Amino acid sequence: MKKPFFDHLKELNVRLIISVAVLILFSSLVYNNYSYFLDFLTKPLIDAGYSVDNIFAITIYEGFQVKITNVLLISLSILFPLIIINLGFFIKPAIDMSSLSFYLYFLSFTFLYYFGIYSALTISHVGIEFLLSFNENEILLRSQNYFQFIIRISLLFGISFQFPLVVLFLLNKNIIKVANFTNNRPELFIFILILSAVITPTGDPITLFVFAIPMYLLIELMILLHKKTK
Predict the structure, then answer these.
(1) Domain for residue 191, yes or no?
(2) Is there a smaller number of Cβ atoms within 10 Å at the N or the C end of the chain?
(3) Is residue 169 part of a domain?
(4) Residue 194 located in a structural domain
(5) Which domain range does residue 9 map to?
(6) Which residues are 55's β-sheet partners?
(7) pLDDT tens-digit profile of 43-73?
(8) CB of 31 within 8 A of CB of 71?
(9) 225 is a domain residue
(10) Distance, CA of 113 to CA of 110 (rounded, Å)
(11) 201-212: b or e for each residue (b if 16 or more CB lie within 10 Å)?
């Protein structure tokens, strides 16, 4: 039986409130263990051959501002799949999808998302080293700029790694035919290269291909899975 409009709106509000409450509670945990998460954020800089001593603050309140911003963004990055599944249950009745398929999509989404973040933190030192190599003098990095860069790259990788999953969904719903991909593989790879160039702002070819090749292979895997399930 269909619910009235305001019942749907009330359910959405409840789910949003739950998401925000969980985010705030988890943020307190991140804040109390901030040094542990800070090591992950500064590791790319260290792997690029630089020290955390190269990071500095300009204003008297910048350290506090950066810490609060980092805590919120780290918490959001970690909890993002849970927030999506919470909101996903709201739209599930409107989607023609079995519960098993819904949970499989969610598990795939979670894996690809965290794999994207892991990839970003693993290879971003290449881009950092490439960009900083153009400086001839001593390197000093403003704290808010560096952490915004690292967290933004991680989120972009995590979200963009959902593209193969979107392809699988479109194939399963017959919105796009599998022949559109199999007959146009060179064009598909060029499109992924362009997408990679947009997502990876460092501009170096190594980071570009490190991102593009796994993305292309994941799409090929989704095409194979679609064929096997038909």
Answers:
(1) no
(2) N
(3) no
(4) no
(5) 5-161
(6) 141
(7) 988 888 888 888 888 888 888 899 999 999 9
(8) yes
(9) no
(10) 5
(11) ebebeebbebbb
